[in-house]
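Posting for a labmate who doesn't have an account.
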Amino acid sequence: MSDYYADKLAGLQDIFGTAALTLEQDWLQVGERRYPIVDDVIVLLDEEQYPPALRDRLGLSPAKRALRGEAFAADIQSTFGNEWKIFREILPEHETEFRNYFDLVDTEALGGLRICDLGCGIGRWSFFLKDKCRELVLVDFSEAIFVARGNLQDCPRALFFMGDLKALPFRPGFADFLFCLGVLHHLPTDALEEVRNLKKYANALLIYLYYALDNRPAHFRWLLALVTAVRLITARIRNRTFRAAFTWLVACFVYAPLIWLGHLLDPVGLSRYVPLHVDYKGKSLGRIQQDVYDRFFTRIEQRFARDQVAALTDTYPDVVISGHGPYWHFLCTNGGVKNDGLIAAASGPPAREVVEKPATETIARRQQRRGLRSAATIGLLLFSFAFLMLITNVPTGLTAEDIVVFEKDLDLKVLPHPQSFEDEIRTIRLIQARVFAKAPHGAPIPEYEPREPSDLVRLQRGWCYDRSRTLDKAFTYLGFETRHVYLLYRKDLSLFASLFRRGHPSHAVTEVMTSKGWLYVDSNQTWIALDRDGKPHGAGGIWKHFNQFDGAPEYVRGPWWAIRGLYSRKGAFYAPYFPLPQLNWQDFLKWVFVEKLTTP
């Protein structure tokens, strides 16, 4: 029997609205329905709605096809399940966000109430309510509900359900207070109608729906149209490596620069014209990545203007819309002393009391000024993006100084051009050996100092990321197509966590294109990834074939992520040493948008 719910039968009977409820071994029987209990989560979904991992755990065969339509979207379920398994931690900034969302609610008045967190994700909002209420009911239709169970493992008053909010088997009015933040706008049905439908479950509801940028300058909406076009493409791509790389790329080179730009413009009062700055200033990169993932990999996204939200007064007597972000979050109540007690003192005017500011300029004049501001802001943003790409790009072309090193110090000029695969392998081994002869193992070239071939030969020492730069260019000198590869060891962490964990194990190698395919060339030992059958292997996934190689270094066992075109995670290797990841943008984008985009 599931011990967790043994002392919660009375609460479950009240939620389902029936006394015909029994708890069995890993099952909850409600009338004629039997709901499985997995890791203390009561699964309310119909069997055809189970995500694949849950079907495996319950010993069920795979579903014949993914559900997608007006009632249920399996791709949205999968996206959010994966998102919250990656971004599973409750972060310090979540508490600030909680206060922003709950500015309309007097949380001290929740003490004796049953609260429902609908679309709970990892339970990040319930986490801050767990000591403020009588009982918590958490509902999510994805595997995020299991993460929420872990995050609230010390809350004995919490009940966990995997269910579809459009088909909950709960009685009307089962909750005293219900909140649904950032969920309904991802449904395949009209989000405002779903707000109206939720009235039956509670007399007071706190809702957050994406805003239509109706209180922002015009260029915000232009950029949103561009983002939407990109999202409709990226949401179709399920490859996890692509999603991880794309999320990291956008967080570092779109969100972070805009936040930084807004910070620079804040003293002169122009930061409000910079997209993302107001919403993300002060947030960690990990928190930003979670929102990037949400924004670009969710197929359905609805947005609403304030007037549309205010129209909910056709269903609820009181609709109070917060005047503060996130926009728009609002409190719907049916009135009454009990519900009025939930409303915070400084909640702002009800939706029906919106008063327009008197116009002081003609419409044409205002439109002209807005257009000029928007054009100037977009121009500044484009310039900033181009500037950041320029200063973080690592060029791969040969310089005159490189050629001198290869011809005089490494004596590569006398090597003939390979005519066969065997010639290619001999040449590759020879170049690798000569680089190691000039710069055997020793202290690394210090950070924030040059590490070109001339520096390696002059110092006669270096680490993998020092020698790999010289190997890259030496193979290029002899006419090989090459690419730099950054190996990031997994260590049971996600790619996101590994990228930004200080001191996380990594390695730098070179890939060389031979007549039979890409070949991994190591930069710590004179070893290349040529298996016993003479087949070359690139860096991606060779650790899976470790036993097929002779003399492979132990660190080749992996596992790792092979990131093409990345040279440094923190900008410490190549001038001007700007504190952002350093990449060869051509190789990196080719890897992300060509190789990973076309890989299942």
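Reply:
Got it, the structure tokens are right above this. DSSP finds 19 helices and 17 strands in the chain.
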